[in-house]
TrEMBL record, chains A, B:
Taxonomic source organism: Archangium minus
DNA-binding region: 40-59
Limits of the HTH tetR-type domain: 17-77
Keyword Cell inner membrane tagged: no
Domain of life: Bacteria
This protein's record includes keyword DNA-binding: yes
Assigned keywords, A-Z: DNA-binding
One Pfam family in the UniProt entry: TetR_N
UniProt-listed InterPro entries: Homeodomain-like_sf (IPR009057), HTH-type_TetR-like_transc_reg (IPR050109), HTH_TetR (IPR001647)
Protein name: TetR/AcrR family transcriptional regulator
Length: 210, 210
């Protein structure tokens, strides 16, 4: 199992993984800067330092490439949030820093690229067909993570609606942050919403714990 | 004052107004369908049935044209909301239908076009310079209308933050609605948000009225 042939295969697999990652990182960069119209396969391959042939070998269409890139970066961000959340207090004081952490999912390097894609998909059926299942998946994952990090009981309808509202709020805040640094205003809004959430959610949890 | 010359001037002014409106309507349409990259002056003038020369006479650059178009349609939407809000009850039951009405500002025909513009401006300094003051203006106007329609006292910090959060939520909901009809989920979120707002805002107002 450790002969030269399998060694070469492992090396090939590693090279293939590195190439895919370069292409996905380049796709997000080019999308962010030039939008869907400018993010051609050629432009992405060039940015990645990869030949167009190799690009097409890994991703048959540019829509498949950018959808894979969005999903990949999104999962990296979720992992980072879960990791950083471990350092937060376990008490009610957890809510506000958690909201700020979750905001990073929406407003990270992915947001501008994803917004370009989503808005282009309004008039592009092929892209829309790729993004809709991705949107459902991404939405579920971030909802599940939020419920888990806030230590909530999802069977409660009020909890579900409060978490939905929280994620819609974060999405709106990320959009407001596109053209200028909106941090000062955002902190006030998130502090306000954290107090609201604490008041709404804590009694439910106490009742359930009794 | 009513001689043939001033009659001709009025006719010219009316023609000019109609041409501007055609160009602005076409700009929103082409932006929605093709994004900033596709919304060239030529494409917009063709859609409006106006010559490129006439287009340039009214709007020296395409950035000036689309910024004027966004502002124009935005004001039309604000007027429509103010008009429709007159039919709403004056009681607390006003909050939820008002939120649904305000949602229309964000998710109307303007939203896709504006999102294309905002995301393109991230990497386009000229466009960004035009949109930033427009964003400030639009944000203030919709904030003022919301405070007024909800009958709130803006000097209260909690009120200001609650209204800010509400508008961020509506923006996030509009983004969630881009690719598919999100109405069923949105109604739940807005119903939840309306109950929260009622609970937060009514006691403050009662205290102030005492």
């Amino acid at each position: 199992m450790s002969g030269p042939a399998s060694g070469a295969t492992r090396q090939e697999q590693e090279r293939s993984r590195v190439t895919r990652q370069k292409l996905m990182a380049a796709a997000i960069e080019v999308l962010t800067e030039q939008g869907w119209a400018g993010a051609t396969t050629g432009a992405i391959a060039e940015r990645a330092g990869v030949s167009r042939g190799a690009c097409q070998h890994h991703f048959p269409t540019r829509a498949a490439l950018v959808a894979a890139a969005v999903e990949h970066v999104f999962h990296q961000q979720l992992e980072e949030i879960a990791r950083r959340a471990k350092g937060l207090p376990q008490s009610r004081r957890r809510v506000e820093p958690l909201l700020n952490l979750l905001y990073d999912v929406y407003a990270g390097p992915l947001f501008t690229a994803a917004t370009h894609l989503w808005v282009a998909a309004v008039a592009d059926e092929e892209l829309k067909a790729l993004l809709l299942p991705l949107e459902t998946h991404v939405g579920r994952e971030v909802h599940r993570l939020t419920v888990q990090l806030l230590g909530l009981d999802e069977s409660d309808r009020e909890v579900r609606d409060a978490v939905r509202a929280t994620l819609d709020l974060l999405r709106g805040l990320a959009l407001a942050n596109l053209l200028h640094d909106d941090t000062a205003r955002r902190r006030k809004v998130l502090a306000h919403w954290a107090r609201t959430l604490e008041a709404q959610l804590t009694p439910t949890r106490t009742t359930q714990a009794d």
